[in-house]
Write a structure and sequence with these properties.
By secondary structure, this protein is of the alpha+beta class. Helix 5 (90-98) packs antiparallel against helix 6 (108-115) and helix 13 (397-409) packs antiparallel against helix 14. Mean pLDDT is 89; it is low at 453-460 and 477-497. The chain has helices spanning 12-24, 41-45, 57-62, 64-73, 90-98, 108-115, 117-125, 142-152, 178-193, 250-266, 298-305, 309-317, 397-409, 420-428, 430-434, 441-445, 454-478, 490-493; strands at 5-8, 28-33, 48-51, 78-80, 102-103, 156-160, 169-172, 198-202, 208-216, 222-234, 237-243, 271-279, 285-291, 334-341, 343-344, 350-351, 354-355, 358-360, 367-371, 378-379, 386-394, 412-414.
Length: 497
Amino acid sequence: MGFKRVLIANRGEIALRILRTLRDMGIEAAIIHGREDRLSLPVRMADVAYPIMRANPLDSYLDIEAVVQAAKDLECDAVHPGYGFLSENADFARKLKAAGIILIGPSPESMEVMGDKLKAKQAVKDFGVPLVPGVDEAITDVKAAKAIAKDIGYPVLIKASAGGGGKGMRLVHEEEEFEEQMQMAQNEAMSSFSDDAVFIEKFVTKPRHIEIQVFADNHGNMVHLFERECSVQRRHQKVVEEAPSAVLTPKMRDEMGAAALAVCKSCNYSGAGTVEFLLDASLDFYFLEMNTRLQVEHPVTEKISGVDLVEWQIRVARGEKLPLKQEDLAIHGHAIEVRVYAEDARNGFTPDIGLLNRYRRPTGPNVRVDDAFEEGMEIPIYYDPMLAKLVVWGIDRQTCIENTIQAIDNYQISGVSTTLDFGKFVLQHPSFRSGDFDTNFIQKYLPDSSILHQELKEEGEALEAAVEQIWNREIELKNRDFSSRAITSSWKKSGNK
């Protein structure tokens, strides 16, 4: 079964990423958009655009009925949800199916199992997948939870049963602070997921975040495309990712890959997915969760495997078999992804918005930039502050690190604060370069986020001053009224920059 037209139910860089693969496959690309994105690059490049204008910008992309109606009105064969928004919404998947439209993603049943951390743990337990010591049932009673935590032994993690992204999660070091931290976790879980149920598990010391890219078709075939290390995080969200991990041996890689495929079997999975593991100081690994969608950091896997994961998603959704078997896949070189956020790393990673006065991407045969921004565009306040993903390849890890630093130096952005200098700080740090680091990297090596390496600060200020002088002169000569278009954000007006 072929696809003539596919609806992209997303925005920004992932929408553009999907659009380009659709074009390569000769499939028409339709896209929905909110008011703020009507002039965006993905909307302009799509074959057809469908406006969904809601008062709250987020609601434009979260309105299930409107998105399904758009797919029907545009006579789309399938919908690609990207990541975030409706990508893991089982109700959305069911309504598309009822309308005779294919979701490019897993079944709603798989989403439901893996979307609930407790259901996921129960599902994988029978398949021999290692689990972090803890409880397998949701808890709302504080006294009962406190008793369980004491039995497990501190430190413990309190985690929301529903949802993810680090929300509804609290680390508790001692019994005296348990009740307060559980209340905070429950409040956040209720606010984010409308469910205040939590579970308790042992906190893994010096954890590394390792995830396995998996793929399965509807014919019983499944493979893994090796691992990504995502241990450099802020607020439980990834900042720097690489593939392969600096610490995994071939034996460990095979064992984790086999465990990830067992997770797929436990929920009868089909399509692209990511199985996340925690790796402790003894190099033992434990199942964390499964993301039933394409990951933000999928480009590093594409770089080392040579596989277009979006193309595979579309082929599987069309009913095709996986193009390659496990023995056909191999790791080629090393890849690093640095997420470029509109955030001030020197000020606690505070989000920033404003006008992109200058936006020049680095180029080169080993450099890939996934974004959807252009020079002169306004950074909106309504969405995730990620501007781009800088992805760089090298023949080995050290070469890749140096290539990435060079790419960061060649990335020119002004008008908003970004995390590029923080990315460089990470790549230059002895701990990262040696491979001896964990998810506590920022807390350990950047205890005061107002201070990055002095060398980086001075270098950045000098470069900024020189480039700004040249740029301002160019603006004056070529576009004298350009500066009048700059908008001072309400964020900056409020003094919260």
